[in-house]
Design a protein that fits this description.
Layout lengths: L6 E8 L3 H13 L4 E4 L8 H4 L19 H4 L11 H15 L5 E2 L4 E7 L4 E6 L4 E9 L21 E4 L14 E5 L3 H10 L5 E6 L6 E2 L7 H7 L3 H8 L20 H14 L3 H4 L9 H16 L5 H7 L15 E2 L2 H6 L4 E4 L5 E4 L3 E4 L4 E3 L2 E4 L8 H4 L3 E2 L6 H4 L18 E3 L12 H21 L6 E2 L1 H16 L29 H13 L5 E2 L3 H4 L1
Parallel strand pairs: 1-2, 1-6, 2-3, 4-17, 6-18, 7-16, 8-9, 8-16, 9-12, 10-11
Antiparallel strand pairs: 4-5, 5-6, 13-14, 14-15, 19-20
Helix pairs in contact: 1-15, 15-17
The chain binds ligand NA7.
Length: about 550
């Protein structure tokens, strides 16, 4: 019984999203490990279990955004190129049908504490409702958005209308029909909520601190016939996916911005724009994220294309300012469908809370610093997450000396290859700090890191190694590598969650590996091929 107190297991995985389900399947079904999952929610799906706000959908196209496991893609058919949350939940139900993950998963089991016990050589793990588990290996597969972020505005809890954080949207749905809707934040989530609500709301008001430099999604229906035909190439496609920088179905062009004449450049940008999705970001000139002058060309193109779509001059200057708020693509662009046209309509609005910040929330609505009160029926908080590190810092992980990871990472983030931490022996994590996380397609990233963890466990078993602990030196070296890679790019210029700059007081540093999936994979393989380079493989007691 996976819910019992004092659960004993070889591997305990925390989280049943893309990462946790992949690990469970491979470790249990292919390698014969005894595996259990603790999941805080009530179903599989990770972020797609939590996300059900209006318009929630993935902005990476299928079949790139799915498992490469053949028995999962063979007979599965999507209805749209960019599926919404309900279809992604159906996909996870199908995954369950094929893989039977749930029989080894304890839901409503939020981990609130864990420490490696040097005597038993096992992890002791505690859940919020007081159960314990003991496992030789602990794997955190909690995603990069496990800790919500709320604004610290005065009066936030006095609002009498409906107010929800995007990842805590009521399952039963919230009707926006005929309502006055406020959307706080312009990340991917805020853009999706705003454009969806604008279909039937009386008005939608977007509170914008930084404009999102959105790209056209070019959503379309997919037929079964075309998918069946394309499936002949899926094996090749999934192999190719791992050779690209971001684990996508395409990669950067092999030339720089100024290798092309202005006319060629315009035509190239135009073709990427027409194809839609992230092409303008991830299939563009290879110097786009490295060279400011090159990047300015991309911004100019984006700016011209977007300004054309907004007729109201004030809204145009706010949502698509002539001067770039940050280098193009250094904050995550959202894929939109008709966002600009929707907000341009007279009943809708955008409020500049960079220059006119929110002063307080009242029973009726939101007051900005200029004293104006706007009244709303619904406030959607699309203010994001303490991304990448917040989740793991919030689960009571203690190192072998009793120090909480929260303190270990207080002034900077340290890991070995973005999957292990010093003095957290036999613990791994994926889709988190210092991995390719934010710069890659989720399923590609978890398969790349998951395969490494799986191979590491198999090697430990084969070589009879019972204790694996990253060294502090290895962590320092990895931190340096992550920083150096990022410093060559334009990413550090922007105040983004990539840089930890979205949370007040959080250390500003690059939280993601910016070298791309192939380079990352090579670094990680090097560790395995060289006898766990950067790890101690004997417990201190055993040494004595
Ligand atoms: P994001 O991308 O972190 O966006 C959060 C937005 O909320 C962003 O526009 C922030 O403005 C804004 N924000 C955050 N705190 C405040 C306060 N206190 N006041 C005003 N505005 C605020 O989160 P999402 O949920 O949209 O997306 C998360 C990821 O999930 C996304 O990138 C995809 O990978 C999927 P800012 O830009 O910092 O000025």
């Amino acid at each position: 019984d996976v819910y019992k107190d004092n659960l004993e297991t070889e591997v305990l995985i925390v989280g049943a999203g893309f990462g946790g389900v992949y690990l469970m399947h491979k470790l249990r079904d292919e390698l014969g490990f005894d595996c259990k999952i603790y999941e805080a929610g009530t179903d599989l799906g990770g972020i797609w279990h939590w996300n059900c706000y209006p318009g929630a959908r993935v902005d990476t196209q299928v079949p790139i955004y799915e498992y490469s496991i053949e028995k999962l893609w063979k007979d599965w058919t999507w209805s749209e190129k960019y599926p919404d949350w309900s279809e992604l939940r159906r996909y996870f139900a199908y995954v369950e049908e094929k893989l039977q993950i749930k029989k080894d998963t304890a839901f409503e089991s939020r981990v609130v504490g864990a420490q490696f016990n040097m005597e038993t050589q096992k992890w002791d793990v505690k859940t919020q409702d007081g159960r314990t588990a003991h496992a030789k290996y602990l794997i955190n597969a909690i995603g990069f958005a496990a800790k919500r972020h709320f604004p610290d505005w005065e009066g936030l809890d006095t609002f009498k209308g409906e107010m929800y954080h995007s990842s805590f949207w009521p399952e039963s749905g919230v009707s926006t029909k005929g309502k006055k809707v406020a959307v706080i934040g312009t990340g991917s989530t805020g853009i999706q909520i705003a454009q969806e609500s604008a279909k039937d709301a009386e008005s939608v008001t977007v509170f914008q601190r930084t404009p999102n430099l959105c790209l056209p999604m070019r959503q379309r229906k997919l037929t079964k016939e075309e998918q069946d035909r394309d499936k002949e190439n899926y094996r090749e496609l999934y192999k190719y996916r791992m050779t690209t920088f971001a684990g996508f179905g395409y990669d950067f062009a092999d030339r720089n911005t100024f290798d092309d004449s202005p006319e060629e450049r315009e035509a190239f940008f135009e073709s990427l724009w027409e194809e839609g999705g992230f092409k303008f970001w991830l299939a563009t000139y290879k110097d786009n994220l490295f060279d400011r002058a090159a990047n300015d060309e991309a911004y100019k193109f984006w700016n011209k294309k977007t300004r054309e779509r907004i007729t109201d001059p004030r809204k145009r200057d706010l949502m698509a300012p002539t001067k770039a708020p940050h280098p193009w693509g250094t904050k995550r662009p959202s894929l939109e469908q008709n966002f600009y046209e929707a907000i341009d309509r007279p009943e809708n609005d955008v409020v500049d809370i960079k220059n006119n910040p929110v002063k307080k929330v009242t029973e009726k609505g939101i007051v900005t610093s200029d004293g104006q009160e706007r009244e709303f029926d619904i406030i959607a908080l699309a203010t994001g997450f303490d991304s990448v590190t917040g989740g793991m810092k919030n689960m009571g992980l203690l190192d072998i000396n009793g120090v909480d990871l929260r303190e270990r990472w207080a002034d900077g983030t340290y890991s070995h290859v973005g999957m292990a931490c010093a003095d957290f022996p036999n613990m791994f994590f994926l889709y988190g700090a210092q991995g390719p996380t934010a710069f890659s397609n989720g399923p590609s990233c978890v398969e790349c890191q998951g395969d490494w963890i799986i191979d590491a466990l198999a090697k430990l078993r084969k070589e009879n190694i019972s204790y694996l602990n990253a060294t502090r030196d290895a962590e320092k070296a990895w931190n340096r590598k992550v920083t150096e890679l990022s410093d060559k790019t334009l990413f550090p210029i922007a105040d983004s969650w990539y840089m930890g700059a979205n949370i007040p007081g959080k250390t500003r540093e690059q939280l993601n590996f910016a070298g791309g999936i192939p380079m990352y994979e090579k670094e990680c393989r090097d560790v395995l091929d060289n006898n766990f380079k950067g790890f101690q493989t004997q417990a201190p007691a055993a040494k004595a």
